Amino acid sequence: MNSFMLRSKEIPLNSSFDVIVVGGGPAGCTAAAAAAREGARTLLIEATGSLGGMGTSGLVPAWCPFSDKQQIIYRGLAARVFETLKEQMPHVNADELDWVPIDPEKLKRVYDDLVTEAGASVLFLTALADVERDEEGNVTAIVVLNKGGLQAFRAKVYVDCTGDGDVAAWAGAEYQKGDEATGELQPATHCFILGNVDDYAYLNGQNLYAGNPASPIHEVFQSGAYPEIPDTHLCNNLVAPRAVGFNAGHLWGVDNTDTFTVSSAMIQGRKMAAAYRDMLAAVQPAAFGNAFVMSTGTLIGTRESRRIIGDYVLTAEDYIERKSFRDEICRNSYFLDIHGTKTEQQSGAGSSLSITLYGPGESHGIPYRCLTPKGLRNVLVAGRSISCDRRVLGSVRVMPVCLAMGEAAGLAAALAAGQTDNDVHAVDVAALRKRLKEEGAYLPDIGAEAVEVVSGE
Q1: Treating both helix axes as pointing N-terminal to C-terminal, what angle do 26-37 and 399-417 enclose, rounded to 10 degrees?
Q2: First vs last C-alpha separation in the chain
Q3: What is the Cα–Cα distance from 380 to 412, expressed in whole angstroms?
Q4: How far is 380 from 93, CA to CA, in rounded Å?
Q5: Are 178 and 184 a contacting pair, CB within 8 Å?
Q6: Among 56, 66, 134, 195, which residue has the least CB neighbours within 10 Å?
């Protein structure tokens, strides 16, 4: 690839914030709210025009489970977001905790209120353009681009909630991405909503989910009558009256750090949405005969991207052993949900890496050290790009656990911003865990079997 040398120029610098959070998905929203709640002057920068990421702009139609099959375990700000949205959706039972539908427009306002009521500032339609750092591993400024042109922002601490680890990676942090041998990434999905659905016929018709052997999607896929439909993946939920959201089909070869691949996938995804509408109108005309494609996601549903290497790398073995950690900042119980290669998905076998293990009441801890990138002093990472191996990424990438990790990262950022050197690796973990518990986090007492004793605990 040819190169082009930029002409040196001065740009405006804003240094009025203690904490800057980049990325307004679930982790970014709770990070900004938590940091502002602690009194830190906080800015949340988001590339799109709304907060919420996959649950709003991405149109993911349902939350992954909030419970360990016995009780809700993603608490604190995560539970606040979850319960506030449920209260605004009359067709959802108040006691439901798992696979609860999402109304994306209502969720946008829930996140707006969460962040702004905590006192954080929000900057929409603003993309990260560059990251500056010094020799000691301190990010000294970030450069962003919006309609005001290039601008620089400087803070004491930065929280990377981009989902791709952009801040950390561009600052020089080590990372891994994809399969170690092939580089292959989990496939993406372009979610969509069908409107004018007959609710009664939909709710009382054949269950469309591919886990149902009698779902018509199996016969449809085998017939090849709809070539745009790539496999049998067909998750769906009633997200609002006469509106059904779909997390359906897969798009392979999509790398969220390569915008050309994302652009091609979104074009293909819109064709797929139309094909699903036509197919559903044919196989369930009572429910979908008059349906139309109401909306497609303005974000592609990315399942895998960069994993920033931190002070601890969470592994699938930690998951299997239900490990607890002396510095854990949340618990997680979601299964290792890894979407496989094209061959695996089209054969109906799923991924050979997926593991479903946990019984009621079982979970594992996520250590604070998974949020602290090696080599960077004043940067934290939360969301799907935390320090972990590829298999356990299939579990920790989903929205409920991202909400919990974000709150911990924001609180830690505020603590680090109050230190002289702003070193996120030197945050008092005992104080962090204490504040998280005070705000309602689910952090059971740690027994003698917990690993990695941390100073201050």
Answers
A1: 30
A2: 51
A3: 8
A4: 36
A5: yes
A6: 134
The token pair at 31 is 């990070």
Q: What percent of the chain has pLDDT over 70?
A: 96
By three-state DSSP, how is residue 72 classified? strand
CA atoms within 13 A on the CB side of 20: 24
**Token pair 């109906």 in the structure block, residue:** 348
Question: Residue 99 — left, alpha, or beta (φ > 0 → left; ψ -120 to 50 → alpha)?
Answer: left
Distance, CA of 202 to chain centre: 29
Q: Which two tokens stand for residue 35?
A: 């940091």
Q: Which helix (H) or strand (E) holds 152?
A: strand 149-153
Nearest to 178 by CA among 170, 169, 187: 187
Tell me, what's the pLDDT at 455? 39
Query: What's the average model confidence in pLDDT over 98-107?
Result: 98
Tally Cβ neighbours within 10 Å of residue 131.
Answer: 23
Cα angle 261, 262, 268 (rounded to 5 degrees) comes to 90
Integer-rounded Cα radius of gyration of the chain: 22
Distance CA 59, CA 193 (A): 8
Q: What whole-number distance in Å separates Cα of residue 88 and Cα of residue 100? A: 13
Can you point out the beta strands (E) in 241-327? 243-248, 292-296, 306-308
Per-residue tokens: 316: 């699938």
How far apart are the C-alpha atoms of 73 and 207, rounded to whole Å? 29
Question: What would the pLDDT profile of 9-25 be if each residue is shown by its tens digit?
Answer: 999 999 999 999 999 99
CA distances from 424 to 25, 96, 409 (A): 22, 37, 10
> What CA–CA distance (Å, rounded) separates 406 from 399?
10
